[in-house]
């Protein structure tokens, strides 16, 4: 008499469902710690506690694994920000302040913030990954911030300014802080001696004085 098929235990089934996330977390940590080129796929599998073949079952190459990490930790967060901005009804200046502080708290100061440094360091050697990062992270970020600046101008909240250049001015300090956090900060060194939230608040106050159509005394 044949035996009925054995169903996987709930624990084993749950472990299998969690495996992609465990692989992505292991990959994120190794990519940020060692860089893309120096990270080997077998090291990711080992850190996640699986065989190398299991890793390739979910992610057929190291490049695809890196893209999945970026989509999980950056692209998904950008989509959340864009959705929230589309529903927002208040002042654009308040939303910009909130977005900058929230991005730092949820991404920039964490391990995922180190992806920016990895791309800046290794983009030249991996042009296909660089193009992917431009298409899925940089361009959508610029488009989102640009829409908010344009919205502020249309409402009369901001004075007319060149949108693309203003977006760069808004984003650049945040990028600088992420690079510092994941270079000097990784060694316990923060040369400025000023916390990122304070720096972001000062940045937004200074920039808004130049953006707002109303007198600076009303900020």
From TrEMBL:
Domain spans labelled HTH tetR-type: 17-77
SUPFAM superfamilies per the UniProt record, alphabetical: Homeodomain-like, Tetracyclin repressor-like, C-terminal domain
Record flagged with keyword rRNA processing: no
Annotation: DNA-binding region: 40-59
Domain of life from the UniProt record: Bacteria
UniProt keywords, alphabetically: DNA-binding, Transcription, Transcription regulation
Family annotation (PROSITE patterns): HTH_TETR_2
Transcription among keywords: yes
Protein name (database record): TetR/AcrR family transcriptional regulator
Originating species: Roseateles paludis
